Amino acid sequence: MNEDQPSVENGCVLWSNGMDLFKDAAERNNFLPTGLEGIDMLLGGGLRKGHLTEITGQSSSGKTQVCLYSASHVAARHMGVVLYLDTSNSFSPSRIAHIVDELPISLIKEPKDMRLKRVMSSIVCESVFDVFALFEVLDQLEASMNDKVNSGGNKICLLIIDSVSSLLAPIIGGKNSQGRSMMISVAMILKKLADKHNLSVLVTNHTVGGNGAPKPALGESWKAVPHVRLMISRDHGSNMYTATVLKHTLLASGRHMKFVVP
Ligand SMILES: Nc1ncnc2c1ncn2[C@@H]1O[C@H](COP(=O)(O)OP(=O)(O)OP(=O)(O)O)[C@@H](O)[C@H]1O
Predict the structure, then answer these.
(1) Residue nearest atom 30 of ligand 1, based on CA coordinates
(2) Residues 185-226: pLDDT tens digits?
(3) E strand or H helix at 127, and its extent?
(4) DSSP state, residue 6
(5) Ligand 1 touching residue 226 (CB < 6 A)
(6) Alpha carbons 116 and 123: distance in angstroms, whole number
(7) Residue 67 belongs to what H/E stretch?
(8) 10 Cβ partners below 8 Å, 6+ apart?
(9) Which of 6, 71, 122, 242 sees the fewest Cβ atoms within 10 Å?
(10) What pLDDT shows up at residue 17?
């Protein structure tokens, strides 16, 4: 084995020296915008490439809105292709069209009809209704990402799963250890894809326990998975929302920022 190279086994890097980690952090220090100013400011630029970001919150707290905004802004700003895995028919092309239509001309310098066509063709939406379909899609994604590395094709830069909890929560109840190991496999595949292909992964996780303090549905085993976990909530009867950091590699938990969904 070459002493300067990290050893690679089944595509996983087993060790890295400090200089590798330093270069890696500097090179990967780039973000994809969510297009929601408060969230982008809170996260130092948006969704970090190479990381898995989780949005959690109660029903109607705005999780899908964050996904739709992120997909629209990333596609509109020529950052790459977005793969949107929709688990509950919440993907809304008309909402995307509305978001793209509202983008200022100073940000996207092209006629509105061309912009919409381009954005729509840069967002690939796929319905995924159970964990087995999810494994299949992720498997195909990995194969196509490996091909794109070799062929230099147009790369996916953002993978969205709205919501990952609706696929995983049904299989982890009770003493179902097989369900739990499937959940951990999904986590490992997502993090490996993010790391190996420098893509940003955005997932949503609904909350449970409405009366007291609502908690993210996927519990303790999943808690360690996301690099960043944001809790969002909607201010009653307004279009004002609050994002609060529950977990972050650099920021203290509890930091929060308001954002508006126009
Ligand atoms: N197409 C739309 N156009 C305008 N506003 C919308 C649209 N869809 C949803 N909203 C508004 O955004 C709010 C947040 O909805 P969203 O679907 O993002 O919540 P969520 O957290 O994903 O909910 P759930 O967990 O039930 O899927 C809703 O209360 C609704 O008022």
Answers:
(1) 60
(2) 999 999 999 999 999 999 999 998 866 788 888 888 899 999
(3) strand 123-127
(4) P
(5) no
(6) 11
(7) helix 63-76
(8) none
(9) 6
(10) 72
Q: What token pair was written down for 218?
A: 């996927």
Residue matched to tokens 């097989």 = 178
Residue 77 contacts residue 33 (beta carbons within 8 Å)? yes
Q: Please state the domain extents for the chain.
A: 46-260
Q: What is the pLDDT of residue 162?
A: 96
| CATH-assigned architecture of domain 46-260 | 3-Layer(aba) Sandwich (3.40)
Question: What φ, ψ does residue 256 adopt, rounded to 5°?
Answer: -145, 165
Distance 66 CA to ligand 1 centre (A): 9
In the chain, which residues have pLDDT < 70?
A: 1-16, 20-29, 148-154, 175-176, 210-211
Please tell me the predicted confidence (pLDDT) of residue 20: 67
Bridge-based pairing of strands 12-13 and 200-208 is unpaired
pLDDT of residue 26: 59
Pocket test for ligand 1, best of 55, 65, 68, 235 (most atoms within 8 A of CB): 65
Phi, psi (rounded to 5 degrees) for 3: -60, -30
User: Rounded to the nearest whole angstrom, what is the distance from the C-alpha of residue 90 to the centroid of ligand 1?
Assistant: 9
Tokens of 36: 């929601």
Q: Which residue lies with its CA nearest to atom 19 of ligand 1? A: 60
217 Cβ closer than 6 Å to some ligand 1 atom: no
